[in-house]
Amino acid sequence: MDHPLPAPDALVRPWRTAAYVAVAVAAVELLLLLLIGGGKLMGFASDQLQLAAQKRALAPTKTHVRAVTHKPTHAPVARRPRHKTVVLVLNGNGRTGAAAAAAARVRSRGYGIGKVTNAPREVPRSIVMYKPGFAGEGRRLGRDLGVKLVTPLDGMRARDLGRSQLVFILGP
Fold it and tell me: Is 77 a member of any domain?
């Protein structure tokens, strides 16, 4: 018959304690890795969502247009000569001196220059905007500069333009 060993002679099992400590350390390391990796993953996902939202906001909206059976509408035509059209030039790409270079390009096409300054925020691409009644001149400036995005004033008031009728915001 087996008899239990007395307490001082009992077999001490240090491996069990070591195993518990190793498991606890591994669990803490796993938790830290999940927190760090999860934070990086969330930052990446947030950046991707922000880029997708910007693309959606800048994409042209699709509108359903009914077929018109009577006379078609024509694109507005510029009525003022270039030298009588004043352009406000804004730097929307953050590079120093880009607005001055763009203003020289606009001036070389024969337009008058209003103010030359920085845009309130950076823009993803170049934009030409026009005051009400100057759509033809805005489209002409867009063609002259190779800018495809030509819109009515958006985010600016006509009174903020001073004597300018058009706004050219330089993008990247």
Answer: no
